[in-house]
Specification:
about 130 residues, mainly beta, single chain, 5-stranded antiparallel sheet, signal, Spore-associated protein A
């Protein structure tokens, strides 16, 4: 049987092949990543890998880099277990945004939708 950690690495490798960048070195003991980054491709969208909330501080940090991009970039941070959007917004043209989302206890993904190519989304729990 494949361990959850090994499955996370295989999953991360599959995502790398699809243009999503993740770091298997950031995986914790249950196979969920501590951080993930995605870059918008020709579809205008990207979604990070799953990141757990910080175990002691109960937060995730997000960042969206839309600098030097000609159009706004809508984003949302979503609880993977129940689908609830815990924060959302739009980063303006040639702007960036970062924030800590407190009070979280689950696992989360950052989604960028309808953005310019190469806009970047980051999520982490450190």
């Amino acid at each position: 049987m494949i361990s959850k950690y090994r499955a996370a690495i295989v999953f991360a490798g599959t995502l790398l092949g699809s243009g999503l960048v993740v770091s298997p070195a950031g995986a914790d003991s249950i196979g969920i990543l501590a951080s993930s980054t995605c870059f918008v491709g020709s579809s205008g969208n990207c979604t990070t890998a799953i990141v757990s909330a910080n175990a002691s501080g109960h937060f995730v940090d997000i960042g969206i880099n839309n600098r030097l991009r000609p159009s706004p970039c809508p984003w949302r941070a979503r609880d993977v277990n129940n689908g609830v959007v815990v924060r959302s917004g739009t980063v303006g043209t040639s702007s960036s945004h970062g924030e800590r989302i407190p009070g979280l206890y689950s696992v989360y993904q950052l989604e960028l939708r309808g953005c310019s190519i190469s806009a970047r989304g980051d999520i982490d729990n450190t």
